[in-house]
Give the backbone structure.
Amino acid sequence: MVKVPLPEDREEVLITNLPSETFDSRQIAELYHMRWGLETAYETRKDRLQIENFTGTKPILLLQDIYSTIYISNLAEDIIRDAETELDEKEKNRKHKMAVNRTLGIGILKNDRIYILLETDAKKQDRLFQQINEDISKNLVPVRPDRHDHRTKGQLAGKYSNTHKRAY
């Protein structure tokens, strides 16, 4: 366990299997920070895409659910990154940098992707895909750096939680 100092005279405790002779607490904190993107990707797959919510019990059905969830995750991330790149090029005069709402983007994609798969006309498929891109691009949230909220501990911490909303 490694204690890492945080602003406002607080500290964070990280659990690691890295040897203390090789890495000091500052280096472990940097490695933890570098890994944060991977942790949020797992959180997205587990909470918003509900990768553990299987539709069957046979191994082939479990694999199908996992592969389709990863496919939707990658497709959503690709669309969202394209939308954010386009947004960065367009908008320069806002108070805060804007980002696409990932939860709503995933929900739109999961609900509307089936219509593209069922459509036989290629031109209509392209229009439907463009519509999905536009719908995802419209749902923006401000990015506020260095914003920290005090976490509630104890019995009321998970009550009426707003942090795990379904994407669909």
